[in-house]
């Protein structure tokens, strides 16, 4: 089948479908003429005539019959327009209406006469071309006049009458606008465009749909509300279509003016244009710009709140083994709103300051151990203020005088916004967003949506923290129940060893045997008693007593413990006195050094140092091992019964932190995966003991 035959088949199918739709609607409206007032009868008649025109076009029964059918269609729809003008009385006040209608009717009748006369003279050379040009020109005059009348019909109508005229005017505008383009192309191309004419039936079907909507009782509620996704995809397709049309047009023009190298120039242009399209069209920046333009000009609100809420729920509630940790999902759920490529989650640390809890798609930013100082958080907790860092950098922020932003955020231009997460007037965290591909200023709609999402995210974090605390409490209870039996058995064994030692003192015959036995039994007894003491402290973090001790002696004892391991290196030591429990502090440092050795390669050193910082002695244990992620440090390192070692109890780091707290100090951790870890133990100087005692007694009096 030829191309012409294919388009003829498509046109016939669409014309027949349009005729059926028009006739069906006319029959349905026969008993409902009152829905269009005085124009009801004329509309039904116009539908029947238009259906007959579709049948004439589909049957291709002759040029004269088709021309008569189309002229009849135009004439009766002009009469419908006049009756619609009469429905609100404007036909008496708009004097030009009747002359315009009469002029268009005269043009149609003249067209029929000229067309009939020229069809009789087709034997004359060149007369076919003249007949075609006359036919096209007359059709263009009528379609342009019809579109002008349709525009005045709707645009000049009173506001209360427009709902009744909206859909009939739209249908007629589509019908005549299609004809206008069809006859314009025919006039310019000097031939009948069969591939375009094949879709005239589709225009008739659109007219049918519009008249049907106008006849519906609930027509006022029928409004086109495309979703943002459909609008964006449709607009994208239109952009691509216009691009392809422009590319073909330019290529065709190059083929005309290119001379001998026309083909080469045309292919080179198509190749270059295609390469540019492949680079530009998939761009996230271009997609972001299109979404902003569409949201600004096509929708009352920027966001599709239903879609945003569904996406937020899917992201934050995504579970399973392959799901991201909760902290990263929190960042992602907020970042997706603005198409931000990454972000950070900061949550309160032990002293109330914000520390890094999770990062999502932002590995290169350096975050200090104290990401946000405690003194700067009260403003965010009190107001829930969402900070635009660009405004803070330029001093344009409304509350700029009340906001303290750390330098590491201001100096990083990728840092874009701070979103506080407030739950029951308590700051549970803060999200830092990275700059989007298409950055813009925030407005009231952004702030409202972010506040709602921030509150919801804060509730998730609080609920998760409560669940973890409850689970930890349950595990502690189980641990204490189990350890009670262990302690009971060990106590019995220690009592038996002690009794054996006393009996050996009385009954051993050989002095050498007696001495060795006594030493062995006594050491065993001491070790068991020490084990019982340590087990008794699990969960309480208690130490036997605090006393003034030389800090350098503690470091020396730890180095003596690892004297056979060349990996352990004492970097710096200060001769200062501290208030601590020597046995507990040594236990903490030995545990940290041992962990550093296990995490580092065999030839990588583990440094231990002692310096002074303010009122504290600062013990540092630094290794260059595998390091730990922020999520592991935040959520797993100090959690009891969580261990990465095979057969480990998972309470070493937890016990170390509790022992340091019992000595009125603190344990900080800085770690990066692949770089290593730094454990910092702060213990009060002996000179500061009186200060801490004064503060403690004051707190007890206040309580």
TrEMBL record:
This is histidine kinase. InterPro entries: GAF, GAF-like_dom_sf, HATPase_C_sf, HATPase_dom, His_kinase_dom, Histidine_kinase_KdpD, Sig_transdc_His_kin-like_C, XrtA/PrsK. It catalyses: ATP + protein L-histidine = ADP + protein N-phospho-L-histidine. The chain crosses the membrane at residues 6-30, 42-65, 138-157, 169-190, 196-215, 235-255, 261-281. Its EC number is 2.7.13.3. It is an enzyme of class 2 (transferase). Gene3D superfamilies: 3.30.450.40, Histidine kinase-like ATPase, C-terminal domain. PROSITE patterns: HIS_KIN (PS50109). Keywords: Kinase, Membrane, Transferase, Transmembrane, Transmembrane helix. It holds the Pfam family GAF. One of its GO terms (molecular function) is phosphorelay sensor kinase activity. One of its GO terms (cellular component) is plasma membrane. Residues 485-687 form the Histidine kinase domain.
């Amino acid at each position: 089948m030829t191309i012409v035959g294919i388009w003829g088949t498509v046109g016939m199918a669409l014309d027949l479908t349009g005729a059926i739709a028009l006739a069906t609607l006319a029959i349905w409206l026969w008993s409902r003429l009152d829905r269009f007032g005085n124009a009801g009868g004329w509309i039904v008649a116009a539908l029947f005539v238009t259906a007959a025109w579709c049948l004439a076009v589909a049957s291709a029964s002759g040029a004269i019959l088709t021309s008569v059918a189309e002229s009849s269609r135009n004439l009766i729809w002009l009469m419908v327009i006049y009756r619609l003008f009469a429905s609100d009385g404007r036909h008496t006040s708009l004097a030009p209406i009747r002359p315009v209608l009469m002029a268009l009717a005269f043009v149609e009748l003249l067209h029929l006469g000229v067309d009939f006369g020229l069809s009789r003279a087709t034997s004359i050379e060149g007369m076919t071309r003249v007949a075609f040009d006359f036919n096209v020109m007359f059709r263009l005059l009528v379609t342009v006049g019809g579109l002008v009348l349709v525009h005045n019909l709707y645009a000049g109508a009173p506001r209360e009458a427009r709902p009744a005229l909206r859909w009939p005017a739209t249908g007629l505008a589509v019908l005549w606008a299609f004809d206008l383009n069809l006859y314009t192309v025919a006039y310019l191309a000097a031939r009948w465009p069969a591939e375009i004419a094949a879709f005239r039936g589709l225009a008739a079907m659109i007219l049918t749909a519009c008249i049907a909507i106008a006849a519906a009782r609930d027509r006022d509620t029928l409004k086109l509300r495309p979703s943002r996704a459909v609008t964006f995809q449709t607009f994208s397709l239109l952009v691509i279509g216009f691009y392809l049309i422009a590319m073909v047009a330019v290529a065709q023009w190059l083929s005309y003016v290119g001379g001998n190298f026309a083909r080469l120039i045309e292919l080179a242009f198509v190749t270059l244009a295609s390469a540019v399209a492949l680079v530009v069209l998939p761009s996230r920046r271009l997609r972001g710009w299109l979404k902003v333009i569409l949201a600004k000009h096509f929708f009352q609100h920027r966001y599709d709140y239903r879609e945003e809420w569904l996406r937020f729920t899917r992201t934050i509630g995504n579970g399973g083994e392959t799901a991201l940790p909760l902290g990263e999902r929190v960042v992602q759920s907020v970042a997706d709103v603005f198409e931000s490529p990454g972000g950070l989650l900061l949550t309160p640390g032990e002293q109330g300051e914000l520390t890094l809890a999770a990062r999502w798609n932002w590995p290169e930013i350096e975050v200090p151990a104290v990401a946000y100082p405690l003194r700067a958080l009260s403003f965010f907790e009190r107001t829930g203020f969402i900070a635009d860092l660009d405004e803070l950098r330029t001093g344009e922020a409304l509350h700029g005088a009340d906001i303290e932003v750390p330098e590491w955020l201001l100096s990083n231009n990728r840092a874009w916004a701070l979103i506080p997460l407030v739950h029951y007037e308590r700051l549970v965290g803060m999200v830092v967003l990275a700059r989007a591909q298409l950055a813009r200023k925030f407005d009231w709609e952004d702030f409202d949506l972010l506040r709602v999402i921030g509150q919801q995210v804060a509730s998730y974090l609080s609920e998760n923290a409560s669940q973890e605390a409850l689970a930890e409490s349950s595990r502690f209870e189980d641990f204490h129940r189990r350890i009670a039996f262990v302690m009971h058995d060990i106590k019995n064994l220690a009592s038996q060893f002690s009794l054996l030692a006393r009996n050996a003192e009385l009954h051993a015959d050989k002095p050498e045997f007696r001495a060795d036995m006594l030493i062995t039994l006594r050491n065993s007894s001491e070790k068991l008693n020490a084990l019982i003491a340590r087990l008794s402290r699990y969960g309480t973090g208690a130490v036997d007593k605090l006393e003034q001790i030389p800090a350098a002696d503690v470091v020396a004892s730890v180095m003596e413990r690892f004297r056979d391991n060349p990996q352990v290196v004492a970097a710096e030591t200060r001769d200062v006195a501290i208030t601590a429990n020597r046995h507990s502090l040594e236990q903490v440092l030995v545990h940290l050094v041992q962990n550093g050795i296990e995490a580092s390669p065999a030839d990588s050193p583990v440094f231990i140092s002692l310096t002074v910082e303010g009122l504290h002695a600062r013990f540092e244990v630094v290794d260059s091992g595998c390091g730990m992620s922020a999520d592991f440090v935040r959520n797993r390192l100090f959690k009891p019964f969580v261990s990465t070692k095979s057969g480990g109890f998972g309470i070493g780091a937890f016990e170390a932190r509790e022992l340091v707290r019992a000595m009125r100090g603190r344990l900080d951790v800085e770690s990066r995966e692949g770089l290593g870890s730094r454990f910092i133990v702060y213990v009060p100087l002996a000179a500061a003991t009186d200060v801490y005692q004064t503060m403690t007694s004051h707190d007890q009096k206040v309580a």
